[in-house]
């Protein structure tokens, strides 16, 4: 069973994906970390984030597990990841690895922005998770504060809007819900309620399969 979870930044898709993976005992891949790791590699090497050739080389050199999430989850890394994720060459370089992960014998849970539309268009379950921009900014600000980072809500909100625009307007695999995806709006849902609804969606799909 392949479960594809897509949605914009801070919509809750990562938490939902992790919880579903635990519940259904499936491996989980946060594909956003691949783009953050690519950006981190460029920054670490002192390269320009807009140098697509260098970004593609960095993407091809990644493993799927050798990530320092403490560094990659920082606010500035999310913005940098959004820049490299808009590059067609980078997306192509990471596509095969993502599909190989999804092709595991028992299946997998993948979350990102183009899982149901590009990476795994034949996924058994597709969920598009969303929430209002203000709710997502509040969540991201709280998350950063809990990590000890200084938080400026206005700046976080601006980041959310900027990333939404970049993700939705890019030419390569833009953020959008697959036609057969079930939409899940988490704006007014607690984490537990959102996870429960996502699990219900998966169970319904399993019965229909």
Question: Which CATH first-tier class would you pick?
Answer: Alpha Beta
End-to-end CA span: 10 Å
CATH level 3 topology: Rossmann fold
Helical amount: 55-70%
The main β sheet shows up as: 5 strands, parallel
How would you describe what is shown here?
The protein is α/β, with parallel strands linked by helices and 209 residues long. It has a single domain (2-204), classed as 3-Layer(aba) Sandwich (Rossmann fold), CATH 3.40.50. The protein is built from 10 helices and 5 strands, in the order βαβαααααβαβααβα. It has a 5-stranded parallel β-sheet with strand order 2-3-1-4-5, with helices on both faces. The longest helix is centred in the last third of the chain and has 18 residues, at 191-208. The protein is globular.
Keywords:
single chain; 209 residues; alpha/beta; five-stranded parallel sheet; 10 helices
Provide the fold topology.
Elements: E1 2-6, H1 13-24, E2 28-30, H2 32-44, H3 52-60, H4 69-72, H5 75-85, H6 88-102, E3 108-112, H7 115-119, E4 125-130, H8 133-146, H9 153-169, E5 182-185, H10 191-208
Parallel strand pairs: 1-3, 1-4, 2-3, 4-5
Helix pairs in contact: 1-10, 2-3, 2-5, 3-6, 5-9, 8-9
């Amino acid at each position: 069973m392949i479960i594809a979870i897509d949605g914009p930044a801070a919509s809750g898709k990562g938490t939902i994906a992790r919880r579903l993976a635990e519940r259904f005992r499936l491996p989980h891949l946060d594909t956003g970390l691949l783009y953050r790791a690519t950006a981190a590699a460029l920054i670490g090497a002192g390269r320009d984030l807009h140098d697509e050739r260098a970004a593609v080389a960095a993407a091809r050199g990644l493993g799927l597990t050798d990530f320092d999430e403490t560094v990659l989850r920082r606010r500035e890394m999310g913005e940098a990841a959004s820049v490299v994720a808009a590059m067609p060459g980078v997306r192509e370089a990471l596509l095969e690895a993502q599909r190989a992960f999804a092709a595991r014998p028992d299946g997998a849970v993948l979350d990102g922005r183009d899982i149901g539309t590009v990476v795994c268009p034949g996924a058994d379950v597709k969920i598009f998770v969303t929430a209002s921009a203000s709710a997502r900014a509040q969540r991201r600000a709280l998350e950063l504060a809990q990590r000890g980072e200084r938080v400026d809500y206005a700046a976080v909100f601006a980041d959310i809007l900027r990333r939404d625009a970049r993700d939705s307007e890019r030419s390569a695999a833009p953020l959008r819900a697959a036609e057969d995806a079930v939409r899940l709006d988490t704006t007014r849902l607690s984490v537990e309620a959102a996870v429960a609804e996502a699990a219900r969606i998966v169970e319904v799909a399993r019965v229909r399969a």
